[in-house]
């Protein structure tokens, strides 16, 4: 399911978010920019009606892919994002050490 979820990205000077619209419901993952090299994922919110459908995982995956493509690292303060990255060893290259 995660490959078919369309996700858009909104980024301002210091903050941004990823948004997935599924069945008319909005799920989001928010982050703060830490300079040009890192982002801090601070929140992932998925409506109850969408839970268990891979929407949150898709949001984190997109954040990882974008960070990798842009040469950024991720600091996952959000417990959900942190757990998702921990479950996917192939995503851990973007973690800030």
Q: For the record, give the distance between the C-alpha atoms at the N and C termini, rounded to a whole number.
A: 31 Å
Low-confidence stretches: none
Order of helices and strands: EEEEHEH
| Major beta sheet, strand line-up | 1-2-3-4-5
SS summary, helix count: 2
What's the number of extended β-strand segments?
5
Global shape: globular
Largest sheet: 5 strands, mixed
Strand content: 35-45%
**Helix percentage range:** 25-40%
In terms of structural class, how would the helical and strand content be classed?
A: alpha+beta
Rg: 12 Å
Whole-number average pLDDT?
A: 94
Features:
97 residues, alpha+beta, 2 helices
Describe the structure.
With 97 residues, the chain is α+β, with helices and mostly antiparallel strands. It is built from 2 helices and 5 strands; from the N terminus they run E-E-E-E-H-E-H. It has helices spanning 55-70, 79-87; strands at 7-11, 15-22, 25-34, 38-45, 73-76. The protein has a 5-stranded mixed β-sheet. Strand 2 (15-22) and strand 3 form a beta hairpin. Helix 1 (55-70) crosses helix 2.
Task: Summarize the structure in short.
The chain has 2 helices and 5 strands; from the N terminus they run ββββαβα. With 97 residues, the chain is an alpha+beta fold.
